[in-house]
Design a protein that fits this description.
It is built from five helices and no strands. By secondary structure, the chain is mainly α.
Length: 91
Amino acid sequence: MLSKLAIRRLSEAMYTPHIDSKFIYLMTTIETLTSREFLNFKKVKPKLLPLIVNTKKEYHTMSEELRGYSEGIRTEIVHNGKSLRDIKKYY
């Protein structure tokens, strides 16, 4: 059921015209992959990563990348009111 939800949300995101809204929607989709209830992204990451990586090195690399998206880009958009277009030059 969670996989169906994720696929549906990915499809819906294709029709979201505003890039910042699309980014937030997709980040929320990642958060819903591990539980139907809200979980903090720090709790989602350890449950999600073993499903998509093959090695410990990939785990740590992907973990850092997702942390950058969550703590860096998402925080700037949601809490500081910046646009993805404004901050993309830093990532």
